[in-house]
Amino acid sequence: HVPWVHKDLRVLVALADCPNSDVFSTDGCRAIIAWRWKVERSLARFRMVMAGIEVANFMAINFFTDETAPSWVGGPLHFTIFVSLLVWSLAMYMELSQILGFICTGLGR
Protein backbone atom coordinates (compact mmCIF):
# COMPACT_ATOMS: atom_id res chain seq x y z
CA HIS A 1 0.00 0.00 0.00
CA VAL A 2 1.45 3.34 -1.11
CA PRO A 3 -0.38 6.38 0.26
CA TRP A 4 -1.87 8.81 -2.28
CA VAL A 5 -0.73 6.74 -5.26
CA HIS A 6 -4.23 6.99 -6.70
CA LYS A 7 -3.90 10.79 -6.88
CA ASP A 8 -0.52 10.86 -8.62
CA LEU A 9 -0.92 11.91 -12.25
CA ARG A 10 2.34 10.18 -13.17
CA VAL A 11 0.91 6.84 -12.03
CA LEU A 12 -2.23 7.39 -14.11
CA VAL A 13 -0.18 8.30 -17.18
CA ALA A 14 2.03 5.24 -16.63
CA LEU A 15 -1.07 3.03 -16.46
CA ALA A 16 -2.48 4.58 -19.62
CA ASP A 17 0.82 4.14 -21.49
CA CYS A 18 1.53 0.63 -20.21
CA PRO A 19 1.91 -1.80 -23.14
CA ASN A 20 0.93 -4.79 -20.98
CA SER A 21 -2.86 -4.92 -20.80
CA ASP A 22 -2.71 -7.56 -18.03
CA VAL A 23 -1.97 -4.76 -15.58
CA PHE A 24 -5.66 -3.79 -15.75
CA SER A 25 -6.71 -7.15 -14.30
CA THR A 26 -5.06 -6.46 -10.93
CA ASP A 27 -7.21 -5.30 -8.03
CA GLY A 28 -4.99 -2.31 -7.26
CA CYS A 29 -5.16 -1.01 -10.80
CA ARG A 30 -8.91 -1.50 -10.92
CA ALA A 31 -9.30 0.40 -7.65
CA ILE A 32 -7.20 3.32 -8.95
CA ILE A 33 -9.19 3.48 -12.19
CA ALA A 34 -12.54 3.21 -10.38
CA TRP A 35 -11.61 6.01 -7.98
CA ARG A 36 -10.40 8.25 -10.80
CA TRP A 37 -13.50 7.57 -12.91
CA LYS A 38 -15.71 8.55 -9.97
CA VAL A 39 -13.87 11.89 -9.88
CA GLU A 40 -13.90 12.40 -13.67
CA ARG A 41 -17.44 11.19 -14.43
CA SER A 42 -19.12 14.57 -14.00
CA LEU A 43 -16.49 16.31 -16.15
CA ALA A 44 -16.89 13.65 -18.86
CA ARG A 45 -20.66 14.19 -18.84
CA PHE A 46 -20.16 17.95 -19.02
CA ARG A 47 -17.89 17.51 -22.05
CA MET A 48 -20.47 15.28 -23.73
CA VAL A 49 -23.20 17.87 -23.13
CA MET A 50 -20.91 20.55 -24.59
CA ALA A 51 -20.27 18.36 -27.65
CA GLY A 52 -24.01 17.82 -28.11
CA ILE A 53 -24.69 21.56 -27.85
CA GLU A 54 -21.91 22.19 -30.35
CA VAL A 55 -23.36 19.72 -32.87
CA ALA A 56 -26.88 21.14 -32.46
CA ASN A 57 -25.49 24.65 -32.82
CA PHE A 58 -23.65 23.74 -36.03
CA MET A 59 -26.86 22.27 -37.40
CA ALA A 60 -28.69 25.50 -36.52
CA ILE A 61 -25.99 27.59 -38.21
CA ASN A 62 -26.28 25.38 -41.28
CA PHE A 63 -30.04 25.94 -41.33
CA PHE A 64 -29.87 29.69 -40.73
CA THR A 65 -27.18 30.31 -43.36
CA ASP A 66 -29.06 28.42 -46.05
CA GLU A 67 -29.50 30.58 -49.15
CA THR A 68 -33.18 29.70 -49.39
CA ALA A 69 -33.91 30.49 -45.72
CA PRO A 70 -36.57 33.10 -44.95
CA SER A 71 -35.53 36.62 -43.98
CA TRP A 72 -36.44 36.21 -40.27
CA VAL A 73 -33.41 34.00 -39.53
CA GLY A 74 -31.01 36.92 -38.91
CA GLY A 75 -31.79 37.14 -35.17
CA PRO A 76 -31.35 33.43 -34.39
CA LEU A 77 -28.09 33.44 -36.35
CA HIS A 78 -26.61 35.96 -33.91
CA PHE A 79 -27.64 33.70 -31.04
CA THR A 80 -25.93 30.68 -32.64
CA ILE A 81 -22.76 32.72 -33.12
CA PHE A 82 -22.88 33.65 -29.42
CA VAL A 83 -23.35 29.98 -28.46
CA SER A 84 -20.40 29.04 -30.67
CA LEU A 85 -18.22 31.63 -28.97
CA LEU A 86 -19.33 30.43 -25.53
CA VAL A 87 -18.65 26.74 -26.32
CA TRP A 88 -15.28 27.61 -27.86
CA SER A 89 -14.32 29.68 -24.81
CA LEU A 90 -15.21 26.86 -22.42
CA ALA A 91 -13.31 24.33 -24.53
CA MET A 92 -10.23 26.56 -24.63
CA TYR A 93 -10.38 27.11 -20.86
CA MET A 94 -10.56 23.35 -20.27
CA GLU A 95 -7.69 22.61 -22.66
CA LEU A 96 -5.48 25.34 -21.16
CA SER A 97 -6.26 24.03 -17.67
CA GLN A 98 -5.23 20.56 -18.76
CA ILE A 99 -1.99 21.88 -20.27
CA LEU A 100 -1.24 23.77 -17.07
CA GLY A 101 -1.89 20.64 -15.04
CA PHE A 102 0.56 18.63 -17.13
CA ILE A 103 3.21 21.35 -16.89
CA CYS A 104 2.77 21.75 -13.11
CA THR A 105 3.21 18.02 -12.54
CA GLY A 106 6.26 17.84 -14.81
CA LEU A 107 4.51 15.85 -17.52
CA GLY A 108 4.83 18.45 -20.30
CA ARG A 109 6.59 16.62 -23.10
What do these coordinates show?
The protein is mainly alpha-helical and 109 residues long. It is built from three helices and no strands.
Offer a concise description of the structure.
With 109 residues, the chain is an all-alpha fold.
Q: Sum up the overall morphology in one term.
A: elongated
| Residue-averaged pLDDT | 84
| Global Rg | 21 Å
How much helix is in the residues?
A: over 70%
Report on the biggest sheet: none
The number of helical segments is: 3
Topology (SSEs and partners):
Layout: H1 9-17, H2 27-64, H3 74-104
Give the key terms:
mainly alpha; 3 helices; 109 residues; elongated
